[in-house]
Amino acid sequence: MKDVSLWTISKVVLNHSHSCCPDQAEMLKQHRELSMFVRRTIETHEEAGIRPSKTYQSFVAAAGSHCELGFIEKDVRNYITRKVRNIFEEDDAKKFGKYLVRMKEKNQNFFFELNLEGDHCIKHVFWADARSRATFDYFGDVVSFDTTYNTNRYNLVLGSFVGVNHHGQSTLLGCALMKNEDIQSFKWLFECWLRCMGGKAPKGILTDQCTSIKRAIELCMPTTIHRWCIWHIMKKIPSKLNSYKGHIDIEQEMSRVVWNSYTKDEFDKNWNDFLTKYGLGGNKWLSGN
Fold this sequence. Notes:
Residues 142-236 form the MULE transposase domain. This is MULE transposase domain-containing protein. This protein has 3 domains: 23-99, no CATH class; 107-232, Nucleotidyltransferase, domain 5 (2-Layer Sandwich), CATH 3.30.420; 236-287, no CATH class. By secondary structure, it is an alpha/beta fold. It has helices at residues 36-47, 52-63, 73-106, 130-139, 183-196, 211-220, 230-235, 237-241, 247-259, 264-278, 284-287; strands at residues 111-116, 122-128, 142-150, 157-164, 170-178, 204-207, 225-228.
């Protein structure tokens, strides 16, 4: 009865059902509640880095048993997700913003751009210090962009721009935190990075096999040659080729071709021989389709 927000029970079938348990009614969602003391304790534990399961078990120990509590572990986790982390995230975003401003005041060549959401939490942020900007002028021809790291606390993606100096050492060319990994987020980031580096795009960039990154590079750096990172490609070999008979031999042979070919002509020959030997010419993943 939608007009009066009521339900009318017209028929009840008790077969294949369990008996009602009135003593368990207090554990229904509408009866569970976190007291002010419990909420403050959860907030204190979360700030101290104590896991939700440990926090819940402390309440159980204090009460004597699960039955003496008016809530379950899921309620603790939901409160942390809904309330506590939002408060801490907003506060930490403000502190991080102030830190970036202080770094800019210390050195005017420090670069950053911060994009906040409506609740003042971080949506995107990019920063690069003076050394990174200067280093790019010398070692920015070919750059690696990686987003395989995640921060645990706020589920933000950490992106890093990395080059290689004349000693063969990795050198940092900028960092970013992002809420999303869609095309618009990467487009925002690449535009920031280009502004930071004086509008100079690298000749080549290496990334993982992410279609959003690929599209953003096409939009922001159309003249840059984009290639996939060999580490990410090789990591996928077992999952892509394990359906083939003798896949272990195939994986070993592919690794040999990739790592032991020292010229383009040598690689092309070894690769074609490899595909022919194992009948992999029609494999879409290996052909890049």
